[in-house]
Amino acid sequence: MAGSTGEPMIGTYHIVVGILLGIYIVLALSLNIITGYTGQPSLGHAAFFGIGAYSSAILSTRYHLSFWVAFPLSGFFTAIVGSMMGVLSLRVKEDFLAITTIGINFVVVAIFLYSDFFGGAFGIGGIPAPIFFGYKFTKPAYLVFVTGLVLLTILISSILLRSWLGLALEAIREDEFAAETMGIDTKKFKIVAFTIGTGLAGLAGSIYAHFMTFISPGDFSFPLSITIISMIVIGGIGTIRGAILGAIILGLAPEIFRPILEYRSLLYGGLLVLMMRFQPNGLLGHESFLLRRISLIRKQSVEWMKKGSGNDAYT
Amino acid sequence: MLRASFKSLGVLLGVLILVMGTLCVPSFAQETIKIGFFAPITGPVAADGASSKQSVELAVKEINDRGGIAGKKIELILYDDRFDPKEAVSIAQKLIGLDKVVAVVSGSYSGPTRAVAPIYQEAKIPMVAAYAVHPDITKAGDYIFRQSFIGLVQGAAGGEAAAKLLGAKTVSILTMDNDFGRTLASSFRNQVEKRGVKILSTDTFPMGEKEFSPLLTKIKGLNPDVIYNTGYPSEGSLIVKQAKALGIKSKILATEGIDSTIQFFGIAGDAAEGVVITTNLNRDDKRPVVQNFIKNYKTRYGPAPDMVGASSYDALRVLANAIQIGGTKPDAIREALAKTKDFDGVTGIIKGYTKGEVLKPVQVQIVRGGEFHYFGEITDPEIITPPR
Amino acid sequence: MLLQQLINALVVGSVYALIAMGLTMVYGVLRILHIAHAAIYALGAYAGLFSFLFFHNFLIAFLIAMVICALAGILMQQFIYLPLLESPRIVPLIASIGLFTFMEDLYRLVAGPYILPFPVNLGFSGIHFFGVTLTSHQLLILVVTFILLGFVWLIIARTRIGLAWKATAQDVETAISFGVNINKIIALNFTLGSALAAAAGVLIGIYYNSVYPAMGSVPAYKMLAIVVLGGLGSVTGTVVAALIIGFAETLMVGYIGFILPRDAIAFIALILILMFRPEGLFGRVNR
Lengths: 315, 388, 287
What we know:
The complex is a heterotrimer of chains A (about 325), B (about 400) and C (about 290).
Chain A: H1 12-37, H2 45-61, H3 67-91, H4 94-114, E1 124-125, E2 131-132, E3 135-136, H5 139-162, H6 164-174, H7 176-181, H8 186-212, E4 214-215, H9 222-235, H10 240-256, H11 264-278, H12 289-309
Antiparallel strand pairs in A: 1-4, 2-3
Helix pairs in contact in A: 1-5, 1-8, 1-9, 1-10, 2-3, 2-4, 2-8, 3-8, 5-6, 5-8, 6-8, 9-10
Chain B: H1 2-23, E1 33-39, H2 46-65, E2 74-80, H3 85-99, E3 103-106, H4 110-122, E4 127-129, H5 136-139, E5 144-146, H6 151-165, E6 170-176, H7 179-194, E7 198-205, H8 213-222, E8 226-229, H9 233-246, E9 251-254, H10 261-268, E10 276-279, H11 288-301, H12 307-326, H13 330-338, E11 343-345, E12 348-350, E13 352-354, E14 357-359, E15 362-368, E16 371-378, H14 381-384
Parallel strand pairs in B: 1-2, 1-3, 3-4, 4-5, 6-7, 6-8, 8-9, 9-10
Antiparallel strand pairs in B: 10-15, 11-12, 13-14, 15-16
Chain C: H1 2-30, H2 37-55, H3 58-81, H4 90-111, E1 127-129, E2 132-134, H5 136-158, H6 160-170, H7 172-177, H8 182-207, H9 217-230, H10 235-255, H11 262-276
Helix pairs in contact in C: 1-5, 1-6, 1-8, 1-9, 1-10, 2-3, 2-4, 2-8, 3-8, 5-6, 5-8, 9-10, 9-11, 10-11
């Protein structure tokens, strides 16, 4: 598979795009746990991505901890802050919560920008690459690691979904009041959802920081939160496959539209509007257009196989 | 249920492969000299992205109209980074791996530029940053050059201008909270303290801020000789305008940040009269290269060019010059760049590069009659030489 | 000095109230967070600017801007929001954000990325009293805001339409059963709210002499903080919250300086107050 100059077609560019895509997928899946499963609108997810990134950056540049220590610690710190937001969500509901989470995003970024501890406007640079048995991470190594993180997140999401925790969260999402009367401790579960969701985002932040080698407050601002939530809504909120597809679409969109330069934001905004207008349940959400198509094609091919050979042995 | 998930994942995979396929770009034979360029063409700072892009395109066109470099035309491969470091990183990989450029000009801010400097360094592709100020950018390595003044130099030049050219005995610093503002403010402070000037107050404001009356009212009470304002056109113009509305008598000294002709004069109106700035473009410079640049830019695009434009124009020309001397191999380009001496640039006679940092005099301009004019120059080597 | 800061704060708060009012009105009836409202605000500034450059008359430009924005609001309502009324609330929010992004970039493509000046000279340089300066533009803002908000208050409190509006905001089904024409109320909402945003856009445009594509970004999210603080859907609450935020920001900046960016201040105020009153200052306690 070589191009006209004999170079391999899958090069560093694709690997880097893959790494960033993987990080987006983790972010989408982790938000899905909070907003998709538990129904708590969180519009400030980028803040937790940032907390994870900054934690890892500070732990490795200032305290010289190895990535393998900084990584889990960052997830842990972020989860702690996230659990506090979970507590906040007990008091503040729905639309109020949505706006509050926006506020959290703004405040967190403002703190990064104005506090010297976090490097202020200069950000934090020189974040070292992880070292694996004496070897520094190469781009492909990052890809492998990120893929692992993606699989971990999918695993956690699936387990969550199919466990009693997942059932409880779904009950809360559908009707919180009813869930409470049934004896479900909604408080505890909400906090758990936030803790897990934000913790995963923190882990994504950690690997992001080491990959980019340099982070600044603006990397974690509100527009990124919007992108993340748009991903799960476009893909189909509450579903793993939806979060992944949404992340792929919106993550690749800048790359695909790159040739059209001038009109990218226009297309991006238009895409969101059209998607919401005509497919509000998401592409792969429950009862979506695409899923119906797929099951139709499947049915048709089974019919064809039955008819075509005239041999009942195939059915 | 599980089968449905597998089917959907299969669909996802199919989509992914299809899409990856479209991302592969066939490479053509080397007929042209490919130079990469990235800038924030959409997004919150699109104005500077536009300035940079237009100036670079003008430079390329002029060179190509004259026959190119050694008979080969320059092919400018440009991308929009939307003021996002992540995009700059993807762009860098694309330029290096797919488009196979021999050199790159960064028309972007410090955030994206800094994120990609190590990437170009590692790939041994020379990059010239037109106007990004973060000190760490050139520290990425010897393949990275900066066309505009490092913050330290410009801030110090500002301090010198305040003390010597404006004769200030007291100053108030009103600085922006981003890296640009902070770097300039701190070196300004060091320089004026060296010259025995007293700093009456230091205040910070966020980028994008519009309401300066509270801070200005406070400064009015202190009555400094000079107010040092590090804002970009949006903030800086409003500071100037609101200061005049409040009846502040202090002289206002600003920086290249405010050097954006249509925006600054448009917003500040006649409050701009008398404002002094440190910058890189001397509009009164008699040299043909400057006057032609201003004239051609105006003819082609309408408004007069600004600091970002001038820096970007020079960034490309310095690069082209290096290619002319050194050939089209990236290593040779880097060497020629490092050896640049007394280059006739729009932004001054570029004496050379020290560890990637440019060495040239700082221009001081004053607003007279709604236009920038020559007011002075800072040439003291102690001030303008970038730190080793 | 304090008096001057208070005047500044009043001006800032008034404009916030003007912009936030449209947002509250839409939320009150449709329960939608209409972020694209900020794009209408910017549209008002652009429409006002170009009308002014064409007709050389400020009043005409002002009115044209309001009309154009009212139309834009109705179009949004018809084609984007009404079809999405049955969807989960996150859907119209994302659609609104998409629309906002789209329009901002449209402004950049049509009018250019540069900040355009909006030079309207009001003929007098302002008034001075007790050592305080009130510029002509500041005076204009206070006067216009007072008139427009007063107008809205009159409609809501004293007319039958206003009564119908309040009924709809409280309980849509009951309102329908009482014969309220919901579609008319919704349309009125968007028209009025968008026209107010247009007015704010023009006023800000001339006050800072700047009109640029991203100008909507600044109010977009802060307005959300304000309407939530006031208690979503409460008209009085919005005005009070807008003034509180205006004062909090100005006084903090004037006396302590920018320890955090302005937007962060608004949100911190919001979070603190929500801790004590989770329904906002004047919000209804829902169960």
